Amino acid sequence: MPGQMFDHIREMYQAELYEDLRQLVSIVLSVVDGGAGCDAGEILSLPQKYQSLIYYGDSLYQLGQYKKAETVFMRCLLLRKTLNKSKIKTISSTELTTEVDVRYKIYQCFHKMKQNTEALSILESINTKKRTSRVNLALAKLYLYEGRDRSAITCYKEVIREHPLALDALTGLLCLGMRGVDLMSYIMNSVPQVSCEWLNSWIKGHSHMTAKEYSSAITTFRSMEPKHGLKDNVLILCNLGEACFHGGHYSQAIAQFKRIHILDPLCLKNMDIYACLLYKEKKTADLHTLAQKLMSVSEHAVEPWIAMGYSSLAFHSTHLNKSKTIRAIYCAQKAFTLDSLSVQALVLKATALLDMKKAPQAIQHFQEAVRMAPNRYEAYQGLVECYLSSRKIKEALAWATRACKTIGNNARTFTLVASVLAKDPSSVARAKQYLNRAMTFDVNLLEPVYLMVDLLIQEQDFAKGAELLRKMQESHSTARLHQQLADCLASMNQHQEALDQYHISLSLDPNNVRAREASERVEKHNEMGLDAGYDVEAEEMMNASNGEPDYSDMESTWSETEFSQP
C-alpha cells in the first residue's frame, strides 16, 4: 500500500532524524522517479511525494544545506501546481503544507544565504490576502533594510492587527516614527488592560529612545521594575542598558549589562556593546572572561566574535602585540560576515585599524557605520579621532558638527565639537562655550567636565578647576575626577590634600600611571621642602612638537566615568 513508506518518512521527520530522513527520501524519490519495475503510485502517491519533498527540504535546511533546500522547495511549488489540478485524495489536504508556507521556507533559505533581493521577491509573490503574520513581519524587516519605510509600516501594522502584543512589530513601528500615543490607541481595544499595564510604560520608553530622549527613556525603563513588578527582567534591562549606552552614561550601561550577564549567562543580546564598554573602561580581565564565556555559548553569532575582537585589542594595548590587533580585525570581519548590518562590527574594525595607525582605512569603516546608523555617536567620535590623529582639524570639526545636526544638540555632541575646537588655541574660548552648554544639558555627564578642567589647567586657572571638580564630587567619584582635583591642588601648593586625592584615584584605578607618577612628584617636592607651585597636568598635556595640548587619551577619558542616576 502507498501509505506505508510515507508513514515511515513522516515518523522519522517527527522524530527529527534529519540525516536519516535525508538519505531515505533521496533513495525513495529516485525509485519513484525512475519507476524501475514498479508503479510509482504504489510507493508514494502524488500528495505523499509532495509532502515527502517538504520533509526532505526541511531536513536539508536543518542540516545547513540551504541552497539545496531552496532547490527542493522550488520543486515543491511546481509539484503543488500539478497537485492542485489533480483529484487524487490519498492524503488529507489539511496535512499538506500550504503554498504560502512553502514560499516562506524558500525565503528562510534565501535569508540564511544573505540573498535579500531574492528573499524579498519570493515573499512579495505571495498574494496580499494570503500573507500570514510571519510573512508580513519578514517583509517589514526586508523593506526596512531596503529603505522602503512606508511599506514596512504597512506590514508591521498588519502584524499588530492580528497580534497586538507582537513587541518586535511594535518596536519597528516606533522606530519608524509612529508616536507612542497613536500606537497605544491603535492597539488599546485589543489588549487586556489589567494584565498589560506595563505595556504603556514599555511603549513610552521606546518612544523616548526613538526621539533620542535618552534620559527620559532611562527613567521610564528603570521605573518599570518597582512599578510593574518586573524585577530582574532581562528584556527590560536590555532596554535600560541600551538607553544608558546611547545617552553616554557608560558606567550605568556597564552595570546593567553586567547584571544581565549574571542573570542569564546565555543571553547574547547587547553583549557586543558590553564588550565595547569594558574595552573603553579598560576592564581587561572582565573583558577576557566575557569573551571566553560568550564564545562557549555560540560561534555562529555576532556578539561573541566582537567580544573576542575587543579582548584582542585590549591585550595589544597591554602587551603591544601587533598580531592581536590583526586578530581583532579578523574577528570584526567574521562578525560582519555573520551579520552585514552589524554596526558594532564596523566600529570594532575601524578602532583596530586606527590602533594600527591606518587612519584612512579606519575612516572608511567609520563612515560606513555612520551610513548604516546615522544616530550612532561612537562612529562620529571615531571619525573625529581619525582626523585629529592626522591633524586635519577642519575635517574633524565638520564631522563633529554633522553629529550635532544628525543626532541633535545634546551634551555629548557639544562636547565632541568642543574637543575639536580645543585643539586650536584661537578657538579655546568657543570650546569652553560648548562645554558650558553641554554641562547645562546633562549635569551628570562627566566628559565635558573633564575637558573643561583640562582647559582650565592649561590656562592655569587652578582654583576654578578645583571648584568645578569639588562640585562634581558631591555626586560622583571616579579615578579621573580625583586625579584632576589632585593636579589642581598640587599646582596651588596644597600638597597634602593633593596626595590624598591621588591616593583615592589610585584606589579606584590602581593602573592609573599618570596619577601614580604625579603622586610621586608631589611626595618628592614635600620631602625637598619646596613650596613653589608647579603645573602637574599642563606639563603632561603639552605636546613636545608644537606645544599644543594633547587630548590623545580622549577615548579613555570618555570611558573612565561613573554616573549617578540622571
TrEMBL record:
Domain of life: Eukaryota
Alphabetically ordered keywords of this record: TPR repeat
GO cellular component: a single term: anaphase-promoting complex
SUPFAM superfamilies on file: TPR-like
Region (Disordered): 542-566
Family annotation (InterPro entries): TPR-like_helical_dom_sf, TPR_rpt
One Pfam family named in its UniProt record: TPR_19
TPR repeat start-end pairs: 343-376, 479-512
Bias kind Polar residues: ranges: 554-566
GO biological process: cell division; positive regulation of mitotic metaphase/anaphase transition; protein ubiquitination
Protein name: Anaphase-promoting complex subunit 7
Organism of origin: Arion vulgaris
Lineage: Eukaryota, Metazoa, Spiralia, Lophotrochozoa, Mollusca
Designated gene of the protein: ORF87797
